[in-house]
Amino acid sequence: MPDRSSQCGVSLIEVLVAMLVLSVGLMGAGGMLAMSARSTHSAYLRSQVTLLAQGMADRMQANPLAVWSGDYDGVYPGAALRDCATGCTPNQLAAYDKGAWSSQLAALLTADTRASIACNSSGLAYLPTAEQLALRPPFGGSCRMTVRWIEQGIGALGFADGGHARQTFAWEFQP
Questions:
Q1: Residue 119 β-bridge partners
Q2: Which keywords annotate this record (predicted)?
Q3: What are the beta bridge partners of residue 86?
């Protein structure tokens, strides 16, 4: 029969080791949850940027006279929302679109989001008229849209490390 005095405290050490292993496992699970939440937010921001960019490209495609006049070129957000309830010229519609897109960028993305649109009509042989634009032939000009925002960084264990990752969405298209 083993000596009872040599067995004292062994079960206490086993319990402490088990608690240590459990706490390390729970810290790992918490880190994975934090990283999952941050990755989900990153995917949300990227989806919003893609949807907003496509929406602005659609607006520009619907108003080609203003596109090739340079009315959509600029830095966003920054344009004030203009009222077009009573009807607008192509230039006024472009101002309305710029204001609407600026407010969407500010509302749906991070506060430090910046965007720019620059259309290059150097491929155009001439500036098309409204009648020619109705026929929708290819004109050769293109536009470049860039959206930049900052996402909070993720450390090695999944916790926010205080760093920031600058993200850029750049798209060249022909409206």
A1: 143
A2: Membrane, Transmembrane, Transmembrane helix
A3: none
Of 47, 52, 50, 172, which Cα lies nearest the Cα of 119? 172
Reported in sequence order, the residue ranges of 14-159 that DSSP labels E, i.e. its strands, are 74-76, 114-120, 142-154
Residue with token string 């490390």? 161
CB 48 within 8 A of CB 109: yes
Distance CA 115, CA 30 (A): 35
| Bond from prior residue into 77 cis (ω within 30 degrees of 0) | yes
Structure tokens at 83: 């009222």
98-131: per-residue pLDDT in tens?
989 998 998 888 888 999 999 987 766 556 666 6
Over the stretch 35-75, which tens digit does the pLDDT of each residue have? 888 888 888 889 999 999 999 999 998 888 888 888 999 88
In terms of phi and psi (left: phi > 0; alpha: psi -120 to 50; beta: otherwise), the region of 73 is beta
Chain centroid to Cα 171, Å, comes to: 13
